[in-house]
Amino acid sequence: MTHSFLLEIGLEELPAKAIVPAVTHLKEKVTSHFKDSQLAFESIKTFSTPRRLAVKVEGLKERQADKTETVKGPAKRIALDKEGNWSKAAIGFTRGQNASVEDIVFKEIKGEEYVFVEKQIKGLTAQELIQQLSPVLTSIPFPVSMKWGNHSYKYIRPVHWLTVLLDDQLIELSLFDVSSGRESRGHRFLGQSITLAHADEYQDKLREQSVIVDRTERQELITNQILALCHTNNWKSPLDNTDLLEEVTDLVEYPTAFSGSFDDSFLKVPENVLETAMADHQRYFPVRNDNEEAAFLPHFIAVRNGNDQSIDQVRKGNEKVLSARLSDAAFFYHEDQKHSIDTFVDKLALVSFHEKLGSLYDKQERLTTIAKLLAPYFELTDQEAQSIERAGMISKFDLVTQTVNEFTSLQGEIAGIFASERGEDPIVSDALSELYLPKSMDGALPQTPVGAVISIADKLDSLLSFFSVDLIPSGSNDPFALRRQAMGIVRIIKAFNVSIPLNDLLESVTETAATVEIKAAYIQKQSAVIAFIKDRVDQWLSTEAGLSKEYDIRKAVLESDQNDLVKIIEAASVLKSKKGGSDFKAVVESLTRVSNLAEKAQDNLSISSDYFETDSEKSLYEAILKAEQLNVNGLSVSDKWQLLSDMHPLIDDFFDHNMVMSDDASVKDNRLALLSRINTLSSSVARFNALVIK
Q1: Which alpha helices (H) appear in 160-279, and where do they start and end?
Q2: β-pair type (159-166, 169-170)
């Protein structure tokens, strides 16, 4: 016999973005609880609205299976006295296992006999296991938890009810200062409380009270309603804004989409300002014409948490709110139009970037310096190269505009728009609009070379600056989003496939430090910054390059002597592709042996043919010279691998005919010098002794 199990936590309205992670965690932990308890079930489904988190388990078994467990006790010599009577130890052991001495059997382990009894363990019922779920409910991770009123618990919002049913049976739980019951609650304004006779009534009973508790169904309703409005009005679907759709889904219990309008005079304001005001501030969907022009229209679509009753009044209320919001946006935009870019730039000196790192103007100057050092690594046209300094020196001006002060998410975009309106070179205005890209770990990247240069420069300055004053991320604490910025550097460099030796670049940046103290701090933190960026490369290789299980490859390339991110990524790709090859194991074993012995070599050892004792030494030396004549640093990683692969028979022959650690110190140093030269080449690809060879 199987059962349906329902668990619902009823709360005050939750933040929309907290709902899916919370109910997903709840599902995972309930699943783990039953699986760990060996209580089988057929399926588990989540339900959620702003006022509830719930799971429903179908096909839940009646109880755990009974099982027999063999328990080991004391040794036989301790269990029996000299007369063969049971000792207190034996009697106490059996009593503790709810058995008797008649149940004892002896088994030999490593030459000695021990007492064993078979312990019968009766399986717990589903009800008993459900009553153990309290820790699951209290441990749901939320962005913020706090105490509410006189309640003793900490949670994201106050808990008002707890519904726990196994079929038609109420399961008693006391938690969050409430006791479980059969009651759930309908829509705050359109519904009433309900009493559930059975767990299977859950969805239908709540639907009667204007709650669509199935999130997928609710989102489909919203989608279909919006598409219907678009079809009626010949608008392009705005549902490509999936983030807004996800958020709106978690803002309502019973959705009704409707359209509204605003004064077309607001269309003089930049479209992204209007979009941000509508989507980010009001959670409205902006709309466009459904044609090639896709013109921005003075209309919007909103989703009401309720039915269509008095929808005209609701529409007018939303239009009024949006009009006030757009009036503010238009005012800020038009006020900013009264000032030149240079006026804004001058104001940057009055605004602190960070108390330990100077003003925004200082930040802008550092960014520009780094951008000029970065530029030669990119294949820029003369016009692009000449635009670098201008783009850098006005890159932060929009941060002191009223528009960005109101719409902070538009930093960079507003700079690009204002620069274009004021006649700046399109190369400059496009670059400014890309300065803060990517805005998330997987967000859109700069598309222009100059945009890429100043974006990397800005992020690299932030890393070096914050590290230099010991404001380094630790654990989950990253207030300046340095991990995201480091990942941005990695992704941009990879996208543009530009080779930048980070150590050389950071050394050049260090030389430009404004003071001796800053220079010293840069020098001290340089290696830490490189390691921090390499950690993001490791993350990228794991998630984007399909190397999540190839820990040894990631470790080998990241611990190489290579500081060019593109070549590190290329090396990982080459090693992954070669790993299944017939000669991979032999090549890696040879290079591992080289690496291990090269570590014993003193610095700056030279090679002299006078100390060669075998032809294998001479042949290997000739191969090394030939390789070095190829300008190894300019070779692709694939070519380097081929070079090392071709060299490996000579390396094996060298090891077969020579004792590297010779008693003759000169011969030993000469052979170590040979291996060091090979290791210099191989370690620019990977630290081969980190690879796991099977």
Answers
A1: 202-208, 215-233, 242-249, 271-275
A2: antiparallel
List, in sequence order, every residue forming a beta bridge with 163; answer none if it has no partner.
Answer: 8, 181
Encode 310-323 in three state secondary structure.
Answer: CHHHHHHHHHHHHH
Judged by average pLDDT, the poorest of 192-206, 458-472, 650-664 is 650-664
Bigger pLDDT: 327 vs 69? 327
77: which 2 tokens?
């010599």
Residue 147 has which token pair?
Answer: 């105490």
Among residues 525, 522, 550, the alpha carbon closest in space to that of 538 is found at 550
pLDDT digits (tens, 9 = 90+) for 565-620: 999 999 999 999 998 888 899 999 999 999 988 888 777 778 888 888 889 889 98
Residue 430 pLDDT > 90: yes
How far is Cα 332 from Cα 277, in angstroms, rounded to an integer? 12
CA of 100: how far to CAs of 90, 222, 260, 446, in Å? 9, 67, 81, 77
**Mean pLDDT, rounded, for 412-435:** 97
| Residue 557 identity | V
Cα-based torsion angle of the residue sequence 475, 545, 438, 23 in order, rounded to the nearest 10 degrees: -60
The tens digit of pLDDT for each residue in 488-503 reads 999 999 999 999 999 9
- HSE-CB at 506 with a 13 A cutoff on CA atoms is 27
Q: What pTM, to 2 d.p., does this model score? A: 0.85
Q: How many residues does the chain have?
A: 694
d(C-alpha 435, C-alpha 56), whole Å: 47
Counting residues of the chain whose pLDDT is more than 90, the rounded percentage is 79
| Buried/exposed 54-93: b ≥16 CB within 10 Å, e otherwise | bbbbeebbeebeeeeeeeebeebeebbeeeeebbebbeeb
In whole angstroms, give the CA distance from residue 668 to residue 662: 5
Contact (Cβ atoms closer than 8 angstroms) between residue 455 and residue 488: yes
Return the closest-CA partner of residue 42 out of 55, 57, 29.
57
CB 31 within 8 A of CB 44: yes
Parallel, antiparallel or unpaired: strands 112-121 and 67-75: antiparallel
Residue whose token pair is 């820790």:
135
Q: Which of 391, 439, 390 is nearest to 411 (CA)?
A: 439
Quote the CA–CA distance of 217 and 113 in Å, as a whole number. Answer: 64
Name the region of 614 (left: φ>0; alpha: ψ -120 to 50; beta: rest): beta
- What is the C-alpha separation between 372 and 472, in angstroms, rounded? 26
Q: Name the amino acid, one letter, at 510.
A: T
**What integer pLDDT is reported at residue 340 of this predicted model?**
96
Look at the alpha carbons of 247, 249, 255, 261 in this order and tell me if their dihedral is positive or negative: positive
183 sits in which H/E element: strand 183-185
- The span from the CA of 149 to the CA of 636, in Å, is 65
